[in-house]
């Protein structure tokens, strides 16, 4: 998950995409003020590179206080790790330039590998550890005795920036992650109601697809915001369980709504009132201002709907297609129970999401007695991580070789920027676009830095004049950082404006080094972009197929594993995989839409597999039915693991429908019909997305 997406937690309304809101102005003024305080403190302590203190404030600046603390904490860890690595590497290899740059390139590769396997802000800290070692070690080339001094200076400058950013974000009109979680969850519930309302009434497919993507994004954002809220207030840890549980239930409700939309027929007497109740409910919820200020009446209504869906309906005697006599295959009976089951699932899931919202509002009075949940399971793409590591190490090494061969002093800046960009943006869904945004912001910053640093400040020195010149430039930049559409370019502008400006207490007119250093930075970014394009270029469709294969393997394990997994563990893994799949799918255009839809359907399949596994443990279920379930699950696992796209489906879907019809023919007991419904739901999902539930071609 990128920091750009998390910026949306500032709760900027849609109109805020063009007009800054009050929250945007608070964020901008707070950030600029913290930066000036950090710079003033660095001046007072006569640090060698005071700009790093101010730059750090803009690097870690986030709209939510917990996000600042998290990014600042991992920036500090990454800086310390990079400083220690720089001291060790330079002490051992500093007298041999060729060996030094080789080891540094390998270190950057290792850190990029680790960063690609982690998530923000941990990933940011790992990447930072790599290029921090380069930033410290290169100036110490040939004089390893100064590396400790350089490492201490950089750490001190960054600590000042982190402290200033963290204190101001927490004390000056703070926006807290705990409040943001509640606001985001309320918005997600309303989005879910809007999605369901459109799904139940045949809404616009494009709008439904956009809402589906937004809900998936919000689910992952809620998970990550738990960490930030706990950093703000350790007491929030006792409420982390409701957040953890609610995330899975949000995805469960989305999956059920999708299934109801895909299978709207038949309109029989048992289904019509249930669909009408659900449609009226979500329509009222989405249209009522302040609906979630009190969830109790909504929860009560959902409880009644879910209970009604679980009741045994009055099923008419099935008739043959020609109306001449009984239809012994039980299809209509099973179809009715199937749709009622999905409707009940949607009502139950939405009810639990609302209860999760209410739990977050309750004051924390004692330690939660609920059993702690396992850590969120994440998808780790090892192939992509190794590719990113090789690219970063190779690019850094080749540019460093050029620097050593040509002895061009300004090329050291190029080496550093190649290391920074090729490592920092390596794990982004579209690293070229991210790096190009960084280049754009850097290029725009250049003339502003020249006018202020080379023209204005040498003529009018002093901190007062500095403040007068930079505040009108940095405040609009910070407003752009608060806008999710412009955060990348705006952040690059602010950081590189300060890097080009290099503010010291005494500024002098010296355009030669300024232009040479600026050129080396821009060239470094362009080289890194070229590396992303040429060296082991990433194919998003390959990543899509790899994640889809992982989801099919998850389902196969649900079918075959001796121990029945916990439902919450499967939901956690499923929504994490979907979250990783979504940005890759968006790069593949319409070709990827069935894969995203199939991933949502996979949640439905997994939950139904768990229902069948639980039914096998029910002593009231006949032994032959238990055996039939086992045979079906083994066949389903084979289908998921071995069938390839374009190949005809095996008998799994036909067997599921046959078993369902046979069960309905033999028994009218509700628990038996629910087994038949689970089989039908699995068959329908696999028929809807046949290529998703097939093994990718090698």
From TrEMBL:
<feature type="transmembrane region" description="Helical">
    <location>
        <begin position="463"/>
        <end position="482"/>
    </location>
</feature>
<feature type="transmembrane region" description="Helical">
    <location>
        <begin position="125"/>
        <end position="146"/>
    </location>
</feature>
<feature type="transmembrane region" description="Helical">
    <location>
        <begin position="489"/>
        <end position="508"/>
    </location>
</feature>
<feature type="transmembrane region" description="Helical">
    <location>
        <begin position="76"/>
        <end position="93"/>
    </location>
</feature>
<feature type="transmembrane region" description="Helical">
    <location>
        <begin position="435"/>
        <end position="457"/>
    </location>
</feature>
<feature type="transmembrane region" description="Helical">
    <location>
        <begin position="51"/>
        <end position="69"/>
    </location>
</feature>
<dbReference type="InterPro" id="IPR006726">
    <property type="entry name" value="PHBA_efflux_AaeB/fusaric-R"/>
</dbReference>
<feature type="transmembrane region" description="Helical">
    <location>
        <begin position="514"/>
        <end position="536"/>
    </location>
</feature>
<keyword id="KW-0812">Transmembrane</keyword>
<keyword id="KW-0472">Membrane</keyword>
<keyword id="KW-1003">Cell membrane</keyword>
<keyword id="KW-1133">Transmembrane helix</keyword>
<feature type="transmembrane region" description="Helical">
    <location>
        <begin position="99"/>
        <end position="118"/>
    </location>
</feature>
<feature type="transmembrane region" description="Helical">
    <location>
        <begin position="389"/>
        <end position="405"/>
    </location>
</feature>
<feature type="transmembrane region" description="Helical">
    <location>
        <begin position="158"/>
        <end position="178"/>
    </location>
</feature>
<dbReference type="Pfam" id="PF04632">
    <property type="entry name" value="FUSC"/>
</dbReference>
<feature type="compositionally biased region" description="Basic and acidic residues">
    <location>
        <begin position="311"/>
        <end position="321"/>
    </location>
</feature>
<feature type="transmembrane region" description="Helical">
    <location>
        <begin position="25"/>
        <end position="45"/>
    </location>
</feature>
<feature type="transmembrane region" description="Helical">
    <location>
        <begin position="411"/>
        <end position="428"/>
    </location>
</feature>
<feature type="region of interest" description="Disordered">
    <location>
        <begin position="311"/>
        <end position="334"/>
    </location>
</feature>
<protein>
    <submittedName>
        <fullName>FUSC family protein</fullName>
    </submittedName>
</protein>
<keyword id="KW-0813">Transport</keyword>
